[in-house]
């Protein structure tokens, strides 16, 4: 297990395009985490966290620290997608790994846009 990990890490380090894509991914995750971290405000009001048309209560509310799960999501995407990229470069090559990493950057960008809207709604409470 350990030799495969080290070999995959060496393969990642050889490709400049992959290093650049990883740097962009971690930069987006850093921006995402900072944005969420600075825009969460502690208060006693419960925030709307879920909506359903099927229950008796359409809006479900939760405490403010529910929003900290967005930061955990960003960190999880960074770690898991880096590990997947290490496995992909060993099995499928550079091009698929590069595509996967750029799609990971797009996922974080979309998450940032959705989180912006969620935090706007949370600020109204």
Walkthrough of the structure:
This protein has four helices and two strands. With 125 residues, it is mainly alpha-helical. A two-stranded antiparallel sheet has the order 1-2. The model has no long low-confidence stretch (mean pLDDT 85).
Write the layout of secondary structure elements.
Layout: H1 2-14, H2 16-39, E1 47-51, E2 59-62, H3 68-91, H4 94-124
Antiparallel strand pairs: 1-2
Helix pairs in contact: 1-3, 2-3, 2-4, 3-4
Question: What keyword list fits this structure?
Answer:
mainly alpha; 4 helices; 125 residues; two-stranded antiparallel ribbon; 2 strands; 7% strand; single chain
* Sheet with the most strands, sense and barrel status: 2 strands, antiparallel
Radius of gyration: 18 Å
Beta-strand percentage?
5-15%
- Judging from the principal axes of the Cα atoms, what is the shape? elongated
Ends distance: 49 Å
Low-confidence stretches: none
Portion of residues within helices: over 70%
Strand order of the largest sheet: 1-2
Structural class by helix and strand composition: mainly alpha
Report the count of strand segments: 2
| Order of secondary-structure elements | HHEEHH
Question: Mean pLDDT, rounded to whole units?
Answer: 85
Count the helices. How many?
A: 4
């Amino acid at each position: 297990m350990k030799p495969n990990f080290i070999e995959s890490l060496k393969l990642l380090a050889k490709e400049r395009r992959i290093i650049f894509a990883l740097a962009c991914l971690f930069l987006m995750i850093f921006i995402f985490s900072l944005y969420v971290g600075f825009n969460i405000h502690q208060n006693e009001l419960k925030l709307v966290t879920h909506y359903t048309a099927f229950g008796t209560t359409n809006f479900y509310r939760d405490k403010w620290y529910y929003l900290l799960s967005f930061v955990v999501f960003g960190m999880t995407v960074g770690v898991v997608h880096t590990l997947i990229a290490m496995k992909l470069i060993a099995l499928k090559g550079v091009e698929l790994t590069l595509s996967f990493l750029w799609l990971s950057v797009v996922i974080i960008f979309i998450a940032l846009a959705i989180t912006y809207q969620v935090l706007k709604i949370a600020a109204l409470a």
